[in-house]
Amino acid sequence: MRDKKERWEGRRKREDLSRDDLLFLLSILEGELQARDEVITVLKSERTNLAPLCAHYGFSGPDKVLCALQRDSHQAQQDCLQDVYEKPIAKLNHLVEAQKRSTKRMLKQLVEVSRSHSGALLKLEEQEGSHRAFIHKSNCLTSLLEQDRERLVHPNPRGFYECLRKDNIDIL
């Protein structure tokens, strides 16, 4: 390595560089860039909040372990720690919207059933009223028929009226 470095320093004065010199210069620059990226990821991992890391990795271990995991994910260029709650919150919002739609549908169905029930109750009340009217007319007809039978059984009109007075029946 020193041999190349000495050769590089010796040739620095010349403007034309050989292929080996260019490769040597390029490797030095690449090493500098890698070192710079390494320092940046280490500083980022030390500066981050530990709560998202704990949530992402599912445990709260020593700080250095979590920072090392984040540093490694930065080195692998995985930016998966942007928002670990984004997907669950999106799913939750979707479920909430689906539940709201379901609740609205159920309320509409409940209103329809309530209307149908009240309509059925009104029909039953009408039928009950007509049934009472029919029973009343039937009772009146039955009493008239009984009065007519009594009249036929007792040919004496005076006896018939006396019998009616005993039974307290008013003639219509």
UniProtKB/TrEMBL annotation:
InterPro entries: Cortactin-Actin_Reg (IPR050719), Cortactin-binding_p2_N (IPR019131). Keywords: Coiled coil. This is Filamin A-interacting protein 1-like. Residues 16-152 form the Cortactin-binding protein-2 N-terminal domain. The lineage of its organism: Eukaryota, Metazoa, Chordata, Craniata, Vertebrata. It comes from the Eukaryota. Pfam families: CortBP2 (PF09727). It comes from Lates calcarifer (Barramundi).
